[in-house]
Amino acid sequence: MDPPDESAAADLRGDGAGEEDLDGGGGSVELQALVPYSARDAPMDPDGDLDLTRTQPPVTIAPRSSRSRTAAVTATKNVAFVEESGATDGSIDDATKRKKMILLLMSTLFVALVGAVLGKHSAVELEQEIEEGEQEEVFHVHSHVDHTDGETKIHTHIIDLEGYHPTTLVNASDYVLPGTEDAPPLSAAKGRPYTPILNHFQFRDPTSSYAKQWGYFDFEDPDPEWDGRMRPQPKFEDYPNRDVPNSEFPEDAWQRSDEYMKAFLAEAKLLVNRSIEAVYAEYGVGISQDGSITLTEEQWINRAKFAPLLVKETVRQGGGGSWTTKQSMEGSARRLIHHIMTGDTFKLVLGGHSAAAGHGAGFNQSYIIEAGHVLEPVFAHLGVEFRSYNFAQGGMGTIQQALAGMDLRGKETDWIMWDSKMTERPGYLNNFFLRQALISGNRSPVLMGDGVDLTGFHDVAGASVAAQGNGWIPVTVSEEQVKEVPWAAQYLQCAPGATANCPGHAYTAGCWVEREDFKPQARQEPIVGGQASWHPGNRVHKRRGRMIALIILQTLDYALDKWETVAAEGGGYPIAEEHWHVTDYYKSIREKAKEVGGCFGNNWRIGQKRHLLEEEQADEDDPYHRNLDGEDDFWPPRLCNLPLQGRSLWGPRHNPVETSLLSIMRPNQMGDIDPLIKTNAYMSPPCYSPPDRPAPWTVPPETEPFAPLIGGSRRLTVDEDGQHQHQLRSQVDESPTPGEATKVDSAVEGNRQVPILRNYVAKRVLAEGDAVEEDAKKSEAADKDAIVPGLGLQVHWGRPGVCDGSSHSWCDKVCSSACLMGGAQDNRGMVCFDGLSGWLVFDVKNVKHGFIGARMEPWHKDTDVSITAGWTEVNNGGRGNYDKHGRERELHEEYQHQMEMKGIERMKEEIEKDIKFVEDNGNSANTTRRLGGGQSCGFAGDYTFQWAINGEIVSWNQAEFCKHYTRLNYNLDVIKFLDDEKKTGDFELAMRMTNGGRGKVMCITHLYWS
Question: Which of 184, 251, 542, 925 is deepest in the core (most CB within 10 A)?
Fold first, then answer.
């Protein structure tokens, strides 16, 4: 392999590698887009002066450097719209004229602000907020005061918002794994319930210092008739993608009310602008809403370079930094307007390797989660439930996820990013990842990629695309000077010749923050593990996350502008369906994506090139060497354009229980999917309850700007003693009372269909020892080859807890952990079986294109099937371990739990070894690695692997298995069970080991079909 590529770390640091290859290099003029309100809507007239009498759609206007903003309500709308030629009009370079314009704009905006403030209702509002399942009173203090008679008077009024609060907690999925109904709270099987977003009136706190300086989402229903009451909504769930006809909106629906919409959009624009400014302010160039921050001339220059967004005509048009296209802005505007109108969800998803996963920085500090910290509260005010998901996996690429379509990544994904250059260099791999995102989910998401060619997806399929670039960063010079650098930028980038030690401050994320209600049993490490030269620190992740958040915020701002403009030009609200319905838009992209080139191609089979290379390099005397058994063993290139499905036990993954292999496993004769269901990790509760305490490496000192709290105006204080304590509201979710079992059902509340939690009486199909003898006799009399699920299957779930890839996860909070706040979610679960386990049976439903395959691991030892320890015959003579009673059963369950915990530790070690091997390009001492690389077909000695589809059994010995064992990428070796386009429907897939006793083990991690 080649030496380590510094570009991956450089991309995260801010060196700009990755995008320039496609842009063609060269400079670009940064232009100012329309700004959402007041005088900021004014374009330049032909003479270069501000024209305050008219507005117009986005056009090519003056360079950003000549349109500086200042004082109150300032826009960080550093967006450039360029024509195909890249030329710009109206450039003004004269410094004197710039200053005159700035002064004119300052005075205009100040007058506008004064008018806006005086027009506000001054009040003390009483808000009933459901927080952690309890109602709390929050008093809202406005900034307006009356100074008559020499006294300061605050006018107050009370607004009752109780009617807007959700009455139930919800869970991310309504799926309940049979046998886990009595799972403890916050276990994987139970999930982590939360308060849903149902309207525009939840989760505010204008009492904080941030709100006083930066403002907050100050919105109320302008119609007194609906004060404190939810307006009627149509049945969105009755229509594909919630695309209700305009005629179905009730007369009093907020979407129909001009008065409501005008007030809502005005506050929404302020909210988005405030959030953009907050990110700028974190790095020293933002302006607060109260006008208390004044920038120097140098800061204005740096502000213009901080995070420009170039809006291009074509993908390949020149220009650096962050960019998108006009086509993409229009498509994204449609999507965003739709989601706000219908109360839909918005999901931002990342797939990648260990650097993207946040190794060394901490999961909740990884850049995609950092983007979510900023965006989630903003979208919440708009009535949209936003989540960011990090599905990156250390030591791997992304194709093992993409082969399952969007099942493991979330079919409702709206914006997806690929970041796996170190482990997936061939372009057809990232092409496959993004292609499946378009054709396999329920939505066709916006595409981003680190150095990915997005041209075909944009030009041919009509997809929306974007790229995150890099801008100006405050530099660190010395240990003394860094004290004056904004907190978020300290030690982020050292100037040439600097005496400060930037590398020494790269990793600051710790493992624990003391709390009053829990003390860890294990000694906590000072910092999160996983540091490596290619793993950026948490400061770099924060910066990159902020850049991604800005792209989405600027796109959202454009959508709000368009919504308002279309209404003004088209007869009011709701705007015409052609501007916000998404079903046909998604369908068109999905169909045209199949015409995009760059996937595996039609001239060779998936896996062929890798196999041929392996053939050339292999030693014929190598016992691990394997030959191919003809082209039939390669996976068909038609998979590129098929909507794939899949289940897995690797993680993190979306809705982890519902997308697990267990969800399609057939129960055994005792009624259990997993014979060890009582002791498995998915039934394990955490060592302590959420939330974690705010960390000093995440939340800045109180005097510093902090975008997640400024944008959302979330509650800041949660302390019974009245002491100030920063608390990110987006991470405060209520869990059920310990010991209280729950079941998830579906109900409609507000304008969304949500799963609701209710008390549930747990049911076990089989109590300890019940009916074992009778069932054993029946089993012994049955045909030995009858395909009946075995009693000796070993499910390795992996990390316990809710590991769904989001910041709302509560993953791996085990008492033995030495880094409880590290948050790592890399997971490699599997189902293993040996010659005594019996059949493993899957019910594979809805096969439409005649394909079934799986990722298999044949190199494991008997310790991975500890359930059969002491057995001498298949299924232990038909009894399994179900005949153990009393103390014997207790000891058995304790032993299985201990083995499971040891297995998790081995899994973590395997992941670290793979990371060092594949991501360090084999430069570590671990260059002879075979097992994790999937090159072994099993240990010495023969075995028989049998598999069957709908009862037709096929037997392979070890040599035959090896001939069919196909490599698609590093550590991704697969078996194809069905490849016949004519065969469709529901299938039974079964597999087992024979003739090997306990010594021959086979494991399955992923099952794919289409």
Answer: 542
Instruction: Check: CB of residue 737 under 8 Å from CB of residue 689.
Output: no
- Alpha-carbon span 831 to 1003, nearest angstrom: 5
Burial of 867 (0-12, 13-18, 19+ CB in 10 A): buried
C-beta of residue 421 within 8 angstroms of C-beta of residue 8:
yes
Contact between residue 777 and residue 191 where contact means Cβ atoms under 8 Å apart: no
Report the candidate in 787, 785, 796 with the shortest Cα–Cα distance to residue 990.
787
Closest CA to 461 of 592, 584, 582, 583: 592
**pLDDT (0 to 100) of residue 890:** 66
Specify the DSSP class assigned to residue 895. Answer: H
**Exposed/middle/buried for residue 146 (C-beta within 10 Å: 0-12, 13-18, 19+):** exposed
Q: How far is CA 556 from the centre of its chain?
A: 18
DSSP-based three-state secondary structure for 617:
helix
The HSE-up count of residue 102 (CA atoms within 13 Å, CB side) is 19
Strands 650-651 and 801-802: unpaired
Tokens of 165: 């609060």
Q: Residue 952 in 3-state DSSP? A: strand
Could you give the count of Cα atoms lying within 13 Å of 861 in the half-sphere of its Cβ? 5
Poorest-confidence range of 88-97, 684-693, 860-869?
Answer: 88-97
- Cα–Cα distance measured from residue 519 to residue 540, given in angstroms and rounded to the nearest whole number: 31
- Residue 83: per-residue pLDDT: 55
- Residues in the chain, overall count: 1010
For residues 918 and 970, give the distance between their C-alpha atoms in angstroms, rounded to a whole number. 8
What pLDDT score was predicted for residue 82? 62
> Using one digit for the tens of pLDDT, what is the confidence trace for 955-998?
999 888 988 888 888 788 899 999 999 999 999 999 999 987 88
Helix boundaries (H) for 78-155: 95-119
Condensed to tens digits (0 to 9), the pLDDT of residues 241-291 reads 999 999 999 999 999 999 999 999 999 999 999 999 999 999 999 999 888
Token representation of residue 943 = 């075995």
Residue that has been written with the tokens 């992923």 in this structure: 1006
> Is the confidence at residue 781, as pLDDT, over 60?
no
User: Is it the case that residue 595 has pLDDT exceeding 70?
Assistant: yes
Q: Say how far apart CA 468 and CA 320 lie, in whole Å.
A: 10
Helix (H) or strand (E) holding 126: strand 124-131
C-beta of residue 434 within 8 angstroms of C-beta of residue 416:
yes
Q: How far apart are the first and last CA of the chain?
A: 34
Crossing angle, helix 538-570 and helix 258-282, to 10 degrees?
A: 160
**DSSP codes of every residue in 674-701:** STTTTTSGGGPPPSSPSPPPP-TTTSPP
d(CA 80, CA 454): 20
Listed in sequence order, the residues at least 6 apart from 896 whose beta carbon sits closer than 8 Å to its beta carbon are 676, 679, 866, 867
The Cα–Cα gap between 980 and 852 comes to 9
The mean per-residue pLDDT over the stretch 129-147 comes to: 30
Evaluate if pTM is beyond 0.85: no
- The per-residue pLDDT for range 189-239, each reduced to its tens digit, is 999 999 999 999 887 777 777 888 888 888 989 999 998 889 999 999 999
Phi-psi region of 799 (alpha: psi -120 to 50; beta: other; left: phi over 0): beta
The residues, ordered by sequence, that sit 6+ positions from 352 with a Cβ below 8 Å of its Cβ are 392, 398, 417, 418, 419, 420, 450
DSSP for 165-222? Answer: S-SS-B-S-----TT-TTPPTTSTTT---BPPP-SSS-S--TTSHHHHHH-------S
**Which amino acid would we find at residue 318?**
G
d(CA 166, CA 367): 31
Q: φ and ψ at 287, to 5 degrees?
A: -125, 130
Is pLDDT at 443 greater than 70 in this prediction?
A: yes
Q: Which of 42-51, 166-175, 231-240, 888-897 has the lowest mean pLDDT?
A: 42-51
- Whether 49 has a pLDDT exceeding 60, the answer reads no
Residue from 766, 362, 772 nearest 528 by CA: 362
